[in-house]
Amino acid sequence: EDKVVQSPLSLVVHEGDTVTLNCSYEVTNFRSLLWYKQEKKAPTFLFMLTSSGIEKKSGRLSSILDKKELFSILNITATQTGDSAIYLCAPASSGAQKLVFGQGTRLTINP
Amino acid sequence: NAGVTQTPKFQVLKTGQSMTLQCAQDMNHEYMSWYRQDPGMGLRLIHYSVGAGITDQGEVPNGYNVSRSTTEDFPLRLLSAAPSQTSVYFCASSYSFGEGREQFFGPGTRLTVL
After folding, report:
1. Whole-angstrom Cα distance, residue B60 to residue B33?
2. A1 touches chain B (CB under 8 A)
3. Taking CB atoms and an 8 Å cutoff, what residues of chain B touch A103?
4. Residue B83 φ then ψ, to 5°
5. Best residue in A63, A97, A100 for a mutation probing chain B (most B CBs within 10 Å)
6. Is there a contact between B41 and A42 if contact means CB atoms under 8 Å apart?
């Protein structure tokens, strides 16, 4: 059975801190891993990772995938209150043609 | 482009009623899917479609039906609503699935079953 575990489930930090969000997975026929940010409504896309060890960056956010150890991390540096959201990771299973979502990490940035 | 649209935004049903949640996309995407999101449980796949006329079940399909008669539309039908179906429903689409493409999400429908 496909399994995705995100940790921590909830995190509260002060503005300016750096945070690391974790995602471990077990999916059949792994194809890629996607990260999404969800504020009040629909998830919005952050990154898609397909290769191990290659960091993807977008501003203060970065992410990396380890296909041998089956995990990914999402880093956010110099956090801002606008980073408060639920962060979802979702490995894609090409055989089953689906994304398998983790429970999400609820990140709260206090000013 | 409107992207992925969903109607209605909110709905309240009584147990046993049926209804259809509408989803449409104008990006000519082949792949469409329905998820439900419950507190603390992330997004769970209900049904998906890899093209017009082709649908398949996700991890929580019971109590839901889908059809895909056109590329643009992918309605989700609740046959006989139950309180356990109270949730937020998201429709998503992507160009294809084979390369693990990004899925674009609609704004969601918040459904309450009394």
Report:
1. 12
2. no
3. 40-42
4. -55, -30
5. A97
6. no
pLDDT tens, residue by residue, B62-88: 999 999 999 999 999 999 999 999 999
DSSP per-residue string spanning chain A? --EEEEE-SEEEEETT--EEEEEEEE-TTEEEEEEEEESSSS-EEEEEE-STT--EEETTEEEEEETTTTEEEEEE-S--GGG-EEEEEEEEETTTTEE-----EEEEEE-
**pLDDT 10s digits, B26-36:** 999 999 999 99
- Distance in angstroms (rounded) separating the CA atoms of residues B114 and B40: 21
Nearest CA in chain B to A102: B42
Of A92, A94, A98, the CB nearest to B58: A98
- Structure tokens, B45: 């796949």
